[in-house]
Amino acid sequence: MTASADPSGEDEEFTGVSLDLPTDSRQSRQLARQRAITEAVMAEGAVRIEQLAERFDISQMTVHRDLDELEGRGLLRKSRGVATALSTSLVESSDVYRSGRQRAEKEAIALAAIEFIEPGESLMLDDSTTTLQMARHLPGKAPLTVITNVLPLMNELTGVRGITLLALGGQYYNWCSAFMGRMTQQAIARLQADTFIMSTAAISNDTVFHQTLETVDIKRAMFEASARRILLADHTKFGKRALHALASLTEFDLIIVDGRTPPEHVERMRSHGIEVVVASRHHAGRSPADAN
What we know:
Layout: H1 25-44, E1 46-48, H2 49-55, H3 60-72, E2 76-79, E3 82-85, H4 89-93, H5 95-98, H6 103-114, E4 122-125, H7 129-134, E5 144-148, H8 151-157, E6 163-167, E7 171-173, E8 178-180, H9 182-189, E9 193-199, E10 202-204, E11 207-210, H10 213-224, E12 226-233, E13 244-248, E14 254-258, H11 263-271, E15 276-279
């Protein structure tokens, strides 16, 4: 089945954290630095701007630019030369915060998911950092139609041979680098995809949860517009709490977890008739060519 249809200025070199993200090197450095700044401020509660500049070997002007963007995403507050952590659910939701966490597990899960994609399929991909890990491996399954509301995925797949990209517009949400809202939902409702691949913020009582209602609305629309639903969930998602329920685990056709997921979770899901795949460690070491 086929689907129908800001920061300004130059960043200085930063080598303290490497995210290995599938984007250009400047954006990779910027995201790595912003994640490191976010985690440093969250760990200490408040850090002076000159201390951040010294710690990450960058200018205070660059720190100010990063903090302005992080403040716009609802992650930190900048006031009188001090960066302060905010207690907000958007911290967990932010792509800056999520991008460097459980990288090996996410890579293993992403490569395991690639094995369930067939050439000629139409895919809907959500705004998770795990599906972003899949992007560089998708050309090996071409031809594919990829439908997404996620700006980094759009950038990664633009012009890739064998990939027909359908970009969903709407209101842009900076904290997750994705388009959401009523316009996005209306566009999704006009489509019918073969497979929806998504991740989640939390799994509690065998139900998938997210922190924001906007996220739930878009993912549920994609869920309803797809014939097959695949959930990608690393071990840290089990037992976590979030505010808004999206779907029961039994509504998914396949759930892919990493090898550190406690066996009791895997056994319980399978006892409920859910197909569960445990991504083995060798997946994380495989190259894109090996993923076919």
